[in-house]
Amino acid sequence: MNKRPYKILLVDDDALFLKLMGQVFINSGFECDTALSAEDAIEFLDKNNPPDIILSDYNMGAMNGLQFRKYLLEDNVFKNIPFLFLTYFSDKDLMMQGLDLQAIDYVLKNTPMNVLVSKVNNILFTVDKQRELSALEIKKAATSLNIKSIPAGIPLVDGFSLDFWHKAFDDIPGGDFIDFIRVNDRYTFAVLGDVMGKKWMAWFFTFGFLSYIRSAVRFAAFNGEYSTAKILQQVNDVICLDEVLKDILSSLSLMLIDSEDATITYSGAGDLPLLHYKKAENKFTHISSSGLLLGLFADGSYSEQQIKLKPDDRLFIFTDGMIDLADDAGKKSDYNRFASLLLDMLKPDASFTGMKKQFEQNLQGQIDDQSIICIYKL
């Protein structure tokens, strides 16, 4: 049983037919949006959450249905939306052109509306089942291989308390990865990254990135080299040469925690600004990095900076899933809203364990993996 109504986008330059078809789908329990042209449909898709399926007329004005479908196939998000052609034509060559563009089917416009609704319901039911099976197989594979992109435990670091919270989108492993690497009694590295891509397709590449990061950290520690900027550049060098990963991009926040000097050295690659909570002032300062996404260019322009936390200060590092939320108006990325929400949670003596519960309650409308690390100065 669906948790929510299916969302459908209807595209047709015949206003009367579009209105009639839309009303039929609404009466059948769908959430329905309409567009009078392919151009209007593209504008709608850019501003709203993707629908579950698109039904498009073939014979339209400046951009016909085939051109519209070709446009969608060039977008990493839109290309995966199930697509169905509507037409008055029954030309077999025309139909084959559409099916060659990975359209699910052609439906003639004179098909009875109840048959059309049943066909769309069956398509979406099948798509849902395939997704469920794919997710189940991935989970089985991850369990049997015992490979994880999220740590099972957290190291103890003198003078600091480390913790994290992670929630996968739709309970399917995605592109976020977290790691804590303790190299000796003095130094511990904290890692937070986000591989660009969708769900398990991004998850698959997290292990390649993590392997290179762990190797670079261990090699640097072996040689007594603790520059986070140099480590990031070494990781980027290898990724740009890797035939599998060179076209895959990832953000990364790399922190070196020095328990002897009670400092944190930070370098970032295309990540969000960190939030440093200053307890004495009860406010945040933003800590930004100018480093480029891993894999984007050979020269990532990575730099590093030292962060000094006072007792009871906290450092928050998080992925964009924490600030990307969806409501009835569509997708929103609101960094400041999340910072404000986080500040409200930081009541006197608030524990991160309590904050985790509030994340579950307050971060509704999740559209991506959500991950956050908290470094607390004792």
* Strand segment count: 17
Kindly report the average pLDDT value.
Answer: 86
Can you say what the CATH homologous superfamily of the largest domain is?
PPM-type phosphatase domain
| Rg calculated over all Cα atoms | 24 Å
- The largest sheet has its strands arranged as 2-1-3-4-5
Q: Give the topology string: H per helix, E per strand.
A: EHEHEHEHEHEEEHHEEEEEEEEHHE
Helix content percent band: 25-40%
CATH topology of the largest domain: Phosphatase 2c, domain 1
Overall CATH architecture of the largest domain: 4-Layer Sandwich
Itemize the secondary structure elements and their pairings.
Elements: E1 7-11, H1 15-27, E2 31-35, H2 38-47, E3 53-57, H3 65-73, E4 83-87, H4 92-100, E5 105-108, H5 113-145, E6 160-167, E7 176-182, E8 187-195, H6 199-222, H7 228-241, E9 250-258, E10 263-269, E11 274-278, E12 283-287, E13 305-308, E14 314-318, E15 324-327, E16 330-333, H8 335-345, H9 352-362, E17 370-377
Parallel strand pairs: 1-2, 1-3, 3-4, 4-5
Antiparallel strand pairs: 6-17, 7-8, 8-9, 9-10, 10-13, 11-12, 11-14, 14-17, 15-16
